[in-house]
Write a structure and sequence with these properties.
The complex is a heterodimer of chains A (about 400) and B (about 375). With about 400 residues, chain A is α+β, with helices and mostly antiparallel strands. Chain A is built from 11 helices and 10 strands. The two termini of chain B are about 30 Å apart. The chains are: A alpha+beta (about 400), B alpha+beta (about 375).
Chain lengths: ~400, ~375
């Protein structure tokens, strides 16, 4: 057991740190509430990812032969940590890089790899993921968007929902039903769909935060070439599982650094805010709550490190990885509640810290829903880790 | 970076698990609970033969010179077995002697401890039950040659069987560590039976107990730091024991949920039961993360070691109790009986929770670090 970085890991970190120092652009200035400003911000992020790609840092975990860096898991964690520390802008094509690219590498044809992978890395193609439907959420396999063969094309009809990035996406990894006569898992196909095709209609879905980062996507007789099947026809469930596993195994390192920054901000408020002539940070109840949150945040970091270390050494995820999603999502909800209690009336103000406490308080409700609800996570732990009988 | 037990440590853990399953089954535990001291001479000798009493003792004093990370692998198994006896107390005292003792004292005491010939404990708590050494008030009067001790120490672990009691006392502003033989005149040890009979507490009364100044543990300004550091080591060992108890409770609960049938199905098929078990697992893994970190930080001398220990003890204190609560709930009526072993672990979780400070105590220590320190 040694939590210090090896010299190899350290030199990876130093190289990345130097690159970030030289290349991270100044923060975007512009009004992201206007349509024009949103467009500018999108272009800003796209340009940033191109620069990252040119520097050789996009597709960190991808094999070298596909333009990646073949980085070890611990290096990926270091990457996320340094990224967050440098306050570098996010990579806009996050779904392409972390979920869809790896799936194409795993099951795609040579043609698909050649045509999409370089463009995913450079953000020439922004990708979204069309899995959830209005009646297929946790039970994704019950999806009903239909694809019917017509010559050498599939004709797609149906609706997807909660589709992140669809409003800017060029391509979609879409799950469709190609055989309704067999059990639900056996009649699904994964398609690579050009979002600019006629019949694709994207409608932004405004959330309770006021943002619209999710969309509804409607497909009306959209013709997709047969060559765009990812994997095999009617075996799309395997493709979907491979993708979802990537999503759930998603490293928590970047999340940790964001949370830690948010936590530190609250600590400075606790020191600064006064009540009865004393800093709020001297109140024993406030102290207990902040310490409890800190404890949970540290334990999330440590469990994440254990999971990384295990996957790095044994190449299989250990049981500790299955609780990471529960740990961070439920921590953040508890933490945002503590923040609101501490901040009091001003916690509701859009004017405090650029509205981030309002945004975080609302946004964290989605944490226990997105990427597998807490209920589904607990089912998975009970069945796959503890070996209890399947409940559904 | 590598954050797991290594192969040798895993093997060590496996052999400890087998050892306690064989040598300390629950019937043995219950028999020792009913005894006054919880001490089993034969078992103690065997543990000494395994080298476990001297794992942290440097090789020049007859120990194995291993690290706290190695030791927690074994301590977890002691918790899984609900092992009674003075192991934790003796290692707490040993850690203190190792840090505060002179060369001669280390030789004298540590060799005997590693060999299984000396059992020891530390007498810290007084009337206000403060784990902070600053709370120590017991006076040591000095006559130029000897210290004279008068007063009462409370909740002294295993004082009934310890050959040596290290008494924390105050002379003027200074903290003193005074080793006292249990047979010393003026020393009275009274057992105070408590909820958890696997851990034996006593009240220790000192009536003009004389300790020659030459026998005090090296008296320096670093006494307080040595006491805190030794208590950190003991706290991590205790946390690892508590983790073993958590793991036992989780395993028993999952097994019961898998086999107990109601409405024609195992109750573990119902999500209300599954989610209790999943939460218990989450707490077990979280505790493990915190303990591994604390053990590594202490043994590597990491600057954040003190904070790491408070995170571990703070988390484990609440988690061990809460896992017990959920375990009893899933077991239903049988989990509430005297006959079922759950009650042993439930009570032990409670005494472990309080020993070396509960979650509230450690959260305040954490707050001092994260809220006050940078100001």
């Amino acid at each position: 057991m040694d939590l210090n970085l090896t010299s190899e890991e350290q030199s990876f970190r130093d190289e990345l740190r130097a690159w970030l120092q030289a290349h991270v652009p100044p923060p975007f200035v512009g009004d992201t509430t206007s349509e024009e400003g949103k467009g500018d911000y999108f272009q800003f992020l796209r340009d940033w990812q191109r620069k990252v790609c040119e520097g050789g840092w996009a597709g960190l975990s991808w094999p070298k032969e596909y333009g990646g860096r073949g980085a070890k898991l611990i290096e990926q964690a270091i990457f996320q940590e340094e990224w967050a520390r440098a306050e570098a802008p996010p990579l806009i094509n996050v779904l392409g890089l972390s979920l869809i690219g790896p799936t194409i590498i795993a099951v795609g044809t040579e043609e698909q790899k050649k045509s999409h992978l370089p463009r995913i890395l450079s953000a020439e193609e922004i990708w979204c993921q069309g899995f959830s439907e209005p009646n297929a959420g946790s039970d994704v396999a019950s999806l009903t968007t239909r694809a019917v063969v017509d010559g050498d094309h599939f004709v797609v009809n149906g609706q997807k929902i909660w589709t992140s990035l669809a409003h800017v996406a060029d391509w979609c990894l879409l799950l469709v039903r190609t055989d309704p006569t067999v059990p639900k898992h056996k009649g699904i196909t994964a398609l690579l769909v050009d979002m600019h095709l006629p019949g694709v209609d994207v409608r932004p879905l405004k959330q309770m935060t006021g943002d619209a980062s999710f969309n509804e996507v409607f497909f009306d007789n959209v013709r997709v070439p047969m060559s765009n099947v990812l994997g095999k026809v009617n075996q799309g469930w395997h493709t979907a599982i491979a993708t979802l596993m990537n999503e759930r195994a998603h490293l928590g390192t970047g999340t940790y650094v964001q949370f830690k920054r948010n936590f530190d901000q609250l600590i400075s408020h606790a020191r600064r805010m006064q009540r009865h002539g004393r800093s709020r940070g001297t109140d024993p109840i406030v102290r207990q709550k902040l310490a409890q949150a800190f404890m949970e945040l540290e334990i999330f970091r440590l469990t994440n490190t254990r999971a990384l270390s295990r996957m790095n050494n044994e190449h299989v995820p250990g049981p500790e990885g299955s609780i990471l999603k529960l740990q961070w999502s439920e921590y953040n909800q508890r933490f945002q509640q503590i923040a609101q209690e501490l901040l009091g009336p001003v916690g509701q103000l859009q004017g405090l810290d650029n509205g981030q406490w309002v945004y975080n308080f609302l946004r964290c409700r989605a944490n226990t829903i997105e990427a597998g609800t807490s209920e589904i996570q607990r089912n998975i732990v009970a069945e796959r880790v503890l070996g209890l009988p399947k409940s559904y | 970076m590598d954050f797991d037990l290594n192969k040798a440590q895993k093997l060590l853990q496996k052999s400890a698990r087998d050892f306690f399953a064989r040598e300390c089954p629950s019937e043995r535990v219950r028999a020792l609970m009913a005894s006054e001291t919880g001490y089993d001479e034969a078992l103690w000798r065997e543990m000494a033969d395994q080298g476990w009493l001297g794992m942290l003792v440097p090789e020049e004093y007859g120990g194995l010179g291993l690290t706290l990370v190695d030791l927690i692998a074994v301590a977890e198994e002691m918790g899984r077995a609900c092992l009674p006896g003075p192991f934790l107390s003796t290692l707490w005292a040993a850690a203190l002697i190792d840090r505060a003792g002179s060369e001669g004292q280390r030789q004298q005491y540590l060799e005997a401890i590693a060999a299984g010939d000396l059992k020891a404990t530390v007498a810290l708590l007084e009337e206000d039950l403060d784990w902070d050494p600053d709370g120590v008030r017991l006076r040591a009067e000095f006559d130029g040659r000897d210290y004279r001790l008068n007063g009462t120490k409370l909740f002294v672990t295993d004082a009934g069987v310890a050959d040596l009691i290290i008494c924390v006392a105050r002379h003027g502003e200074d903290l003193l560590l005074l080793p006292i033989k249990r047979t010393s005149p003026g020393l009275a040890v009274t057992p105070t039976p408590a909820m958890d009979a696997t851990r034996k507490f006593s009240t220790v009364m000192l009536d003009n107990v004389v300790v020659p100044a030459t026998e005090t543990l090296a008296f320096t300004t670093a006494t307080r730091r040595a006491l805190l550091a030794a208590t950190e080591v003991a706290s991590v060992i205790l946390c690892a024991e508590m983790l073993g108890g958590i793991e036992w409770t989780l395993a028993s609960t999952v097994e019961y949920a898998r086999t107990r049938q109601q409405f024609g199905k195992p109750i573990g098929i119902y999500q209300a039961v599954q989610h209790q078990c999943a939460d218990m697992f989450l707490m077990a893994e979280s505790a493990r993360s915190a303990i591994y970190y604390a053990a590594w930080a202490v043994s590597a001398g990491d600057p954040l070691a003190t904070l790491a220990v408070s995170i571990a003890k703070g988390y484990c204190s609440d988690a061990a109790r809460e896992v017990g609560n959920r375990g009893i709930q899933v077991h239903g009526g049988i989990g509430f009986t005297w006959e079922h072993n759950l009650q042993l672990y439930y009570k032990r979780a409670k005494s472990g929770e309080v020993l070396f400070g509960d979650a509230t105590h450690h959260r305040e220590l954490i707050a001092r670090h994260i809220v006050d320190e940078a100001e």
